[in-house]
Amino acid sequence: MKKSKILMMAGSLLLLSLFALPLWNITLEAPQYPDPLGLNIHIDGLQDGNNENDVRNIDLLNHYIGMEHLPKDLPEYHLFPIIVAVMAILGLIIGFTGKPKLYLTWVIVMAILGIAGIYDFYLWLYHYGHNLNPNAILKFVDKNGNPMAYQPPIFGSKQLLNFRVHSFPASGAYVMFLGILMTIWAFITGKKES
Amino acid sequence: MKFYFKMLNVLVIAAFSLTLVACNGGNSKGGALKNSAAEKVFVAPGKYDAYYAFISGGFSGQLSVYGLPSGRLFKVIPVFSVDAEKAWGFNEETKPMLQTSHGFIPWDDSHHPDISQTNGELDGRWVFINANNTPRIARISLETFETEEIIEIPNSAGNHSSSFVTENTEYVVAGTRFGVPIPQRDMSIKDYKGNFKAALSFIKVDPKTGHMNLDFQVLMPGFDYDLSHPGRGKSHGWFFFSTYNTEEAHTLLEVNASQNDKDYIAAVNWKKALEFIKQGKYQTMPARYAHNVYSDENHTATSTMEKSVRVLDASKLPGLVYFMPTPKSPHGCDVDPTGEYIVGSGKLAAALTVHSFSKMLKAIENKEFDGEAYGIPILKFESTLAGTVEQPGLGPLHTEFDGKGYAYTTFFISSEVVKWKLGTWEVVDRKPTYYSVGHLMIPGGNSRKPFGKYLVAMNKITKDRYLPTGPEVCQSAQLYDISGDKMEMLLDFPTVGEPHYAAGIPAEIVKKHSKKFFKLEENKHPYATKSEDAGKVVRKGNEVHIYMTMIRSHFSPDNIEGIKVGDKVYFHVTNLEQDYDVPHGIAMIGARTSELLIMPGQTETFVWEPKQVGVWPFYCTDFCSALHQEMQGYVRVSPRNSNVKLSWSLDGE
Amino acid sequence: MRFIVFFIMLTLVFQACKTAGNQPQSTEDLTKNTPKGQASVVDKESAPNILQLAEKTKELSTLVAAVQAAEIEHVLVNAGPLTVFAPVNSAFDALPAGTVETLLKPENKKKLAFILTNHAAPSTYKGRLLKDGRKIYMATGNYITIHRKGDDVYIGDAKILATVDASNGVVHLIDKVLVPEEK
To answer: Which pLDDT belongs to residue A99?
Structure first.
């Protein structure tokens, strides 16, 4: 079998790791938490990031600032697994055809879906950070007198009250990224081969 | 110009270094750091101590947990005495733990902690400790640092030669101090001699769960059994008890129990005892003793009254017990890490007596006896004697070992710790204690593998050592560094109650198993409330059961109406938190009990019997969160004949 | 400018050096705070202990000097209870000439301590507890027998002249030194 075919098929199969590995991680550090609290975002839901009960405990802290409970269920939790599975299978089939053009199409579709996913993630962060209960226990305002938002960064670190919040891709994202790189490589080698 | 500056720099730095060296040299030859006691005990903020020390609370009845070398107090674990701080003996769940055949007893005198062992080495699973007054043995879990089990010892009084474990924690052993009529009966005290008896109890420990069970007792003559230690290594299977009052005096023991030139160390062959049990040579005696077990599953204790005990009569079973004569009322009875030497500290004797286990076996084989006492053979003094430490000090009490061939003995009257060499019996060092030392402890000192870095001396008298606090001043411990040839005193620190014995263990063996919280979904308490929605109030006649939850920072329900004067109100409160170090407390005005201090995932219960009409508040007693002061609620109490309906709410819902 | 900075640094080091020197840094120093152990405790309010009683009693000045020479003060201030048979000065005087002087020499400290501890017994023996024929176990490990002759009480061949209660036991003034048999 051609090298490009193997690369394309293997790359798209790596997507399946997202069923086990977290896509993103948000970690909250504070002096009271020598073991920082962590939130792992998986394609099908939220899981404890660093210690048992982290999600529960983050939720508990959030109620002080009037944040909604973290979602147990979202449409995305059902949609994302389907998209990932479909893309992986498509990638396999495309790999089997051995057509570099289709490889490129797959990569582009994947990139669009990825950007859409991150945008969706941003919207949720914005939603939780801004839709605060007006009767919240702790209310802070910014310099201009507007209610303070508690939106974690989408990428990077930020100080939110007494917490230092870090938001970075997690293992699943890296594996997916590797997979996409492999499919791009498949496209390049595929072109050379033909 | 540049060159000039460089030269100046070099010169100044050189001068700077010289000064530092001079400064060190001025302090001592080894350099300031090497000899600084402060450096040796300083544990920087946020750093951990190297050892846990479990120090008995004596007449406080509890067990305190310290760090070494800092001497910082971490926790006082309630064991035999009620503790309002932790609701021990006050909440409904732990009341059964203090049940005995004499009823509920709120206090005792705790003496000798010992850590469980595997293959003769500390395994850090449990600590056992004895109650001296109403004889009991407790087992404390080193996962939760809570007392999990207490078993009462029948036929015993003054449970002093306890609670020491065999080298695989097969048994925890308890010996009686007082001779008493067995079974108890109405008789004249004057008829003590020959009629009073003493029981040595062997409590089997389940290797998995740690659950205790009184397997058998050895019935002995009515001497006083003072302390004991297990054989180890080659002497595994034997247990040694020091005795005094072999005179069998029953009055003014101060004088009358000091008449005999020699008392005994009793060597009990417990492996042989197991054979006798197998052969059915025991007697099953009726007895009443409480067996109390606390479960982390339902967070509740149960108390069971046991009805009988198997007894082996040492006078009638040859080969079970031998007496080794030991001068002048031996107190400490300590076995070295190899199991060969048994040190008897005659507390009135001028010398320390050391017996040899192998010589003892030989003497038994050759029947080198010097008569008998109540049918128990007395071995010839010279036949078991390994050596004596001559004129080591006044009032020897206890000995521990460093695993490097040295023994350390405390001297009460001359207030000192004396280091001597096993085998040559020569004194190599002595250091004063402040003042009148009782026990001493080297971590692992009662095992095959001691950790010979620190020694803790526990003093009975402090007088002017600390700021005065009225007539009652603290008792204290002193820390010595024993890693060198000479002992070095490092630190004084006050203790809780009167420290008798202590047990130390390297922190890394224990700390990794320490529990952080209880899992809510595993809570099997019959009155557990696992979510706020499940909260309710149920009336059964004049009993009212409140199913309440607590989480940062509210109770649910927090408004309750329909309670009447004369009701018996049970608050069953569950802490819904699942995070480390977020306990909540609860206290109700006028409740004749303590607060509850509830760990995450746990359920506890207190009873309130309101006597007055009104609206009465309750609140959280542990500063749990930023809104701790908001964590409160009200109960409306109506007259006895009122028809206010039972209702409960949170936030009006 | 630089020079000044370095000069300040140097001074600081010397300063630090000085303060460090004032702390009881070496572990040896820690025991020097209380040179005589429990006997260093200053307490003028409590009932006097055996050592304090002896120090106040003129007839016991030789004994006190001997206790100090043997450095066993802490034994007499201990919680006890102790019975001390305290030979009066004339008892020491009755010893062969030069005996006391020899014993007080530093090289005989151990021997002196042994002789002195032969005068102390654990527990409080007084009044009717001093029964005729009772053997008293002394801190040296020797037994000495009590005899009663009429109203007089003897320990060994020493007669009890007077008895004083102490906070930690009892002191019997006796007219002879109880010289232990050589071991």
So the answer is: 87
Structure tokens at B594: 């303590």
The CATH number given to whatever domain includes residue B328 is 2.130.10.10
Among the partner residues B551, B580, B626, nearest to A60 by beta-carbon distance: B551
For tokens 């308490």, the residue is B525
- Of B511, B539, B569, the residue that ends a domain is B511
Whether the upstream peptide bond of residue B435 has omega within 30° of 0, thus cis, is: yes
**How confident is the model over C55-109, as pLDDT tens digits?**
999 999 999 999 999 888 888 888 888 999 999 999 999 999 888 899 999 998 8
- List the subunits that have 3+ CB pairs under 8 angstroms with C: B
Number of alpha carbons in the 13 Å side-chain half-sphere of residue A140: 13
Give the span between the Cα atoms of B416 and B406, in whole angstroms. Answer: 16
Q: Check if the beta carbon of residue B301 is closer than 8 Å to that of residue B98.
A: no
CB C36 within 8 A of CB B458: no
Counting every residue written for chain B, the total comes to 653
Residue type, B122: L
Domain of residue C114 covers 48-183
B410 touches chain C (CB under 8 A): no
**Buried/exposed B347-369: b ≥16 CB within 10 Å, e otherwise:** bbbbbbbbbbbebbbebbeeebe
Of B357, B323, B326, B353, nearest in space to B341 by CA: B357
Residues B466 and B531 in one domain: no
On chain B, the residues whose CB falls within 8 A of the CB of A30 are none
Domain extent at residue B420:
51-511
- Could you tell me if B530 and B501 lie in one domain? no
Residue B5 lies in a domain: no
Of the listed ranges B47-51, B587-591, C50-54, the least confidently predicted one is C50-54
Check CB contact under 8 Å for B578 and A57: yes
> A12-60 pLDDT, tens per residue?
999 999 999 999 999 999 888 888 999 999 999 899 998 888 998 888 8
Structure tokens at B555: 């109770």
Residue where a domain stops, chosen among B511, B539, B564: B511
CATH of the domain at C57: 2.30.180.10
> Residue A146: its pLDDT value, please?
79
Q: How far apart are CA B422 and CA B387, in angstroms?
A: 9
- List, edge to edge, every strand of the sheet that includes C169-174: C120-122, C82-87, C169-174, C158-166, C152-155, C143-149, C135-137
Number of domains in chain B: 2
Cα distance from B15 to chain C (closest Cα, Å)? 8
The closest CB to that of A60, out of B552, B580, B626, belongs to: B552
Interface test with B, best of A57, A58, A140 (most B CBs within 10 A): A57
Closest CA to C63 of C92, C94, C83: C92
Contact B627 A60 (CB under 8 A): no
The DSSP string of B466-513 is S---SS----EEEEEE-SSSS-EEEEEEE-SS----EEEEEHHHHHTT
Beta carbons of C13 and B461 less than 8 Å apart: no
CA distance B344 to B360: 14
